Amino acid sequence: MSQVYNFSAGPAVLPKEVLQQAAEEMLDWHGSGMSVMEMSHRGKEFISIYEAAVRDLRELLAVPANYKILFMQGGGIGQNAIIPMNLVGLKTQPATVDFILTGSWSGKSFKEAKKYCNANLAATAEDSKFTAIPARDSWRLSKDAAYVHICTNETIDGIEFQDAPDVAADTGGAPIVADMSSHILSRAVDVSKYGVIFGGAQKNIGPAGVTVVIVREDLLGHALPICPSAFNWKLVAEADSMYNTPPTYGIYIAGLVFQWLKRNGGVAAMEQRNIEKANLLYGYLDSTEFYINRVDNSCRSRMNVPFYLRDESLNEAFLAGAKERRLLQLKGHKSVGGMRASIYNAMPIEGVTALIDYLKDFEKKHG
């Protein structure tokens, strides 16, 4: 089969080396005679897989010792409910949570949290049609918020925070909770600036079905009485993510991805590659009037690049031609239309250059 480049936003492309290793180990993991999918989550074989995954992720992100790493289920959307059920108990009820609305996913988090707390819309980029992060001095933060929620990379809208915002002085020290689903492990992150980092694995880590939660230990133990036991972070942490049967195969594939990242220079090396890929793609999009990217230069995502054809009557022809060139999953999210190229860690630079070649050829034919 000729080379395919998969630009899906998630479930997304995985490193070929990881898929090949998983295929080789499918029927017999390390001489155990079992597939990982057949293993007991409490058996020594799987425990060794789990412990390696936790250890490697802690190393890759330099996660401080006073943070727990949890592997859970329910995806990022599940955490939109799990997070307030675990954290609003930090404050006297009814607790307030501040939200910075920068796109579709922070919007979903805001809507879900309303069921469990006083959700305060502290800032929104809706006026800019989610093409920029609201200026920090415009944020209307609460003085006694339980936490401040941000989505550090909006997969649909293509907005990315370059660093954690400073909110402590305005909120009385409220922790920042960050949805990093679509750019975790793509760039260096100072974990100590956040109280909680979470993300579905299906974009930059592994298959759908496993969710990573990195939580500071002092934020454990505040769950509301209505919080299901399986979603109580304190119980999950005490059981080393084995309170209930975890998504074992997803954890295994995530662990292989962590090993792949370490072999390829870790997060620092990956960040440099991602900068190069993003600069190439944005550079071409900015050089022509045939295509449009509407996101402000200061907050363009390195992972998810939305763009539009100026003449949108050409959309179907564009997608058909891309498929012929084996450039897949370029259609934008149904809520915003247009196109979107997700260029995660596992997307090689050759995929980006192949896309740019196609963009040029399509423009020559239809421009």
Automatic annotation (TrEMBL):
Pyridoxal 5'-phosphate binds at W105, T155, D179, Q202, N244, T245. The gene is serC. It is found in: Cytoplasm. It comes from the Bacteria. This is Phosphoserine aminotransferase. The modification N6-(pyridoxal phosphate)lysine is found at K203. It comes from Noviherbaspirillum humi. GO terms for biological process: L-serine biosynthetic process; pyridoxine biosynthetic process. PANTHER family: PHOSPHOSERINE AMINOTRANSFERASE (PTHR43247). GO terms for molecular function: O-phospho-L-serine:2-oxoglutarate aminotransferase activity; pyridoxal phosphate binding. It catalyses: 4-(phosphooxy)-L-threonine + 2-oxoglutarate = (R)-3-hydroxy-2-oxo-4-phosphooxybutanoate + L-glutamate; O-phospho-L-serine + 2-oxoglutarate = 3-phosphooxypyruvate + L-glutamate. Keywords: Amino-acid biosynthesis, Aminotransferase, Cytoplasm, Pyridoxal phosphate, Pyridoxine biosynthesis, Serine biosynthesis, Transferase.
